[in-house]
């Protein structure tokens, strides 16, 4: 399957190493959080870095881009926003690129920022392999990003028209380790959802044991993420006093902001 190594940076930011399989040398990185020695990282991980994918321009997702460019001047940096530092490969919605023997479909998901991009990764040599998606600050496990530069209709499109329609088994790798807090909110707005209760218990144990909660799957998100369940859940509809997905999305985000 597509190999992903999750690296925690700062307090709760994820940077990812991605390659075709565990033994492959060709790799790319997703979201360079910090200025660091990426040449040392490449040597330590026994990889050849062929590209960088940046989900959005916030510093905690691209703070290492300029330093990386100085260390690897010929390696492309992809992104969907001209504000991404050292960007030299701008991408558009549904654009497909091939890197490290993998296929990357770029998904424009504006809202958290106007130029936010998620990256859907498959192995073109084996379509039966489980795909992965890097969702930055659009889709978190059991949550979503704040609407800093966008609107509820945009986030509804991102979550419930684009990401929700990816294959159920797609592994979801978000930009932050926010899972426990997000599931506590999910349990508040949908207290009788057994999937939420079970995942909250699991995630709490994971973090207490020093383990990550990534990845999730699209299937799990459809079962536990309140921002993807306004239409499906009467309990959530009662909590937000509407069955309209857009109005419900807006009310949930406001509730979460103050939770």
Automatic annotation (TrEMBL):
Cofactor: Zn(2+)
HAMAP family from the UniProt entry: Glyoxalase_2
NCBIfam families assigned: GSH_gloB
Pathway the protein takes part in: Secondary metabolite metabolism; methylglyoxal degradation; (R)-lactate from methylglyoxal: step 2/2
Organism encoding this protein: Caenorhabditis remanei (Caenorhabditis vulgaris)
EC number: 3.1.2.6
Identification of the protein by name: hydroxyacylglutathione hydrolase
GO terms, biological process: methylglyoxal catabolic process to D-lactate via S-lactoyl-glutathione
Catalytic reaction list: an S-(2-hydroxyacyl)glutathione + H2O = a 2-hydroxy carboxylate + glutathione + H(+)
